[in-house]
Amino acid sequence: MAQKNLIDNTEINKKCNKESKIKENQQFDEESKQEKEETIELKKSEYEEILNKLQEKEKKCEEYKDYIQRKEADYQNFKKKLIKEKEEFAKYANYELIKELLPIIDNLRRAATFCENVDDIKPLSDGVCSVIKQFLDTLKKFGVEEIPKLEKLNLMYHEVIETQETSEVPEGSILDVFQDGYTFYGKVIRPSLVKVSKLPSSENKEESADENIKN
């Protein structure tokens, strides 16, 4: 009987130990599971934090990239401006010198005209005219052009210093050029001094009267 009770107690103890181990294992599994979940949550949080930092860095990089591109564009524009200003300076550097040379050409023309009217020195006129042509060809290389002798007044290129009443040509026709004008790279540096026609006073009055009648 005592031996049977001992066996029963042993079985009971084994059963209790087994249940205890099962509970311990279950508790351990639950704790492990909880730790894993906490680890996953922690990693997720760290990942989101890292992702946010990366997004901020990308945003900063885009801002720096945009800033650098704008500065590069500003630099290129400034560089182009400097080159243009340098070219303009070189282009018009001889402006004052050329203006001083124009009266010399005028005097050469006068000398050529005088030589043409004097029989003894008329051949000299050809030589003077050749010098004038060479002078003008040289100035042309530096952007100087003679203003063409036009038939009609153009205030962009002409300066009227004298008028003459006539009905033989339309009003505003150029009758004479007293001094040749010149352009420098397309800009007028000296206008041509001209004499232009205007209608006689009697015809002006008749036209005014006609206009008043029409009105």
CATH topology of the domain at 147-215: Nucleotide Exchange Factor Grpe, Chain A, domain 2
CATH superfamily of the domain at 147-215: Head domain of nucleotide exchange factor GrpE
Q: What is the ordering of alpha helices and beta strands?
A: HHHEEEEEEH
Instruction: Output the number of helix runs.
Output: 4
Q: What is the first-to-last residue Cα distance?
A: 154 Å
Largest sheet: 3 strands, antiparallel
Q: What are the defining features of this structure?
A:
215 residues, three-stranded antiparallel sheet, Nucleotide Exchange Factor Grpe, Chain A, domain 2, alpha+beta, 14% strand, 6 strands, three-stranded mixed sheet
Question: What's the quick description here?
Answer:
By secondary structure, this protein is α+β, with helices and mostly antiparallel strands. Helices cover about 70% and strands about 15% of the residues. The protein has a domain at about 145-215: Nucleotide Exchange Factor Grpe, Chain A, domain 2 (Roll), CATH 2.30.22.10.
